[in-house]
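for the writeup, i need someone to sanity check this before i put it in the appendix. the sequnce is what the collaborator sent (i think, or maybe the updated version? ugh). structure was predicted straight from it, no edits. if anything looks off just tell me and ill rerun, i have time this weekend
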Amino acid sequence: MTMQSPSSPTGHYIVTVVGGEEVRAFVPTPLPPSPPLLMDGPLVMALDEASRALGRFDGAVRHLPDATLLIYSYVRKEAVLSSQIEGTQSSLTDLMRHELGAAPGVPLDDVLEVSRYVAALDHAVARMADPAGLPLCNRLLREAHRILLTGARGADKRPGEFRTSQNWIGGRRPGTAVFVPPPATEAHEAISELEKFLHADDDHLPPLVRAGLAHVQFETIHPFLDGNGRIGRMLITLMLMERGVLANPALYLSLYFKQHRASYYELLGRVRTDGNWTSWLLFFLEGIRSTAVAALSTAERLEALVERDGATIRAHAGRSTGSALRVHAALARTPIVNVRSAMQQTELSKPAVQNALQRLSEFKITREVTGQRRHRLFAYTEYLDILSEGTEPL
């Protein structure tokens, strides 16, 4: 049974029965907002500052000698952070050790969930970059969702399919929920309308504003039974890439959302109840600005570290200089290695890799992290320390 209930400025409520309980499910009005956003004053200033900071960061990444060094690590940092918001306890080190097949003592479900996020994001980026692939669309989001949930927690929550039943956010049952998204039929209509908005080019909305609006709309629709938060955060980066604002998938807002969780959820709610898009967009644009500034600083610190340690190797490694530099370059791409993975990356012999790792340990560039005689792992410790800032489990 459904019936209309009082409206909010950005949608209306449908009173429906779920599990024998009567609840008010919110159905968002399609984007763009009506009346149109008033792009003046503080909002214009915030947009300008965010755009300039993002442009500086993107330009710096484009001019790196090897942008893949940064992107590999940033994608994994985002996977850890986005999954932590959903309750996982894995660290960046846990994920990298898992990818080498060596993560004893790490909660397997947690690290699998994080690794599936990496796979889902890699898939989406590759599909968008392939001329024969897909644009940013609902089909692409479903593909990413299928990869995200398959083989991890949520595998029984219809991976890759929009929901056909009611869900809710917060509370043990619908009647105590913090928020109830639209019923399934209305959710399907709403996500189709959102797809049209993703492709629209006649409303003159700046790409950063469009991404901020779309993120709220996706989270409000909550089209999947599980994984909505992670896909919704991924959507921001994919939108910025498709609109040409980002050349590489190297900027993510999960750390900002993690650090400001209370404000994030409050402002999402105020959009739904009061139609307050402006406050949300000011928060979102500050997130873009501060994240871009911090990411640029991190990229510069990592680049300086790699250059400093390379100089140390060239000055002191003697006859091992060539192999030590090649192993060091491998560690800058993947900050935790074992002998086998270093051999694969460098095409050096096993003795050459072992000798190089020994020399790097003597220079305190790397550290063996298992304490074992077999299956040893070597971490580029200072690199990992810089990259891991802010990824401590909640």
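Residues 277-316 form the longest helix (40 residues). Residues 1-7 have pLDDT under 50 and may be disordered.
thx in advance!!
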